[in-house]
Amino acid sequence: MRLADGPRVECEIEIDATPERVWALVSDIGTSVRHSPELHEVEWLEGAEGPAVGAYFVGRNRNAGLGEWQTVSRIVCMDTARTFQWEVVYYEDRHHGVPLATWTYHLEPVGDGTATRLRHGMRLGDAPGPLQRFVAQYPEREEEIIDGRLARLRAGIGTTLAGVKADAEA
Q1: 54: nearest Cα among 99, 95, 26
Q2: How far apart are the first and last CA of the chain?
Q3: Range of the domain at 64
Q4: Rounded CA gap, 144 and 114, in Å?
Q5: Which 3-state string (H, E, C) describes the chain?
Q6: Could you read off the pLDDT of 108-140 as tens digits, one per residue?
Q7: Which residues of 11-47 are buried (b: 16+ CB within 10 A; e: fewer)?
Q8: pTM attached to this predicted model
């Protein structure tokens, strides 16, 4: 895959819990911290105390290949028990900027509504970021770089979904 292809990754899992129960977990930004292999800390910004469209939070991340970094995200969609979505943005340009990435949880009732199909994914945005800069340094390796990052994200998303499932079914 190439940057021009609009790289994205998504995984799904079925959870033996209602969409409302799963929603309570995925709309809590602390849930991902408990389960993600990269995200290790989150904090609300600008006086926000919980999820709401327009609220900002900072995420502190790390992994062996990329080191440590932090991101700022803005919640852009909260359709209760259906969709929770946030954009990673440049904080300095947060009110006008193009997202670096968009992350989404999508919930769907299964059967009689006592189970939930949960999809979680990320789409790389158009804002230039670290991945684009790395590709620019090694253009001949673009597909390898993109595929490697997507594989690492897919594994992390799978781990996060398994953790949400365990929490919801507990």
Answers
A1: 95
A2: 38
A3: 3-169
A4: 41
A5: CCHHHCCEEEEEEEECCCHHHHHHHHCCHHHHHHHCCCEEEEEECCCCCCCCCCCEEEEEEEECCCEEEEEEEEEEEEECCCEEEEEEECHHHCCCCCCCEEEEEEEEEECCCCEEEEEEEEEECCCCCHHHHHHHHCHHHHHHHHHHHHHHHHHHHHHHHHHHHHHHHC
A6: 999 999 999 999 999 998 888 888 888 999 999
A7: bebebebbbebbbebbbbbebbeebbbbbeebeeeee
A8: 0.93
What domain count does the chain have?
Answer: 1
Q: Which of 36, 4, 6 is nearest to 105 (CA)?
A: 36
Kindly report the length of the chain.
170
Handedness of CA 130, 59, 73, 56 (dihedral sign): negative
Residue 131: which CATH number?
3.30.530.20
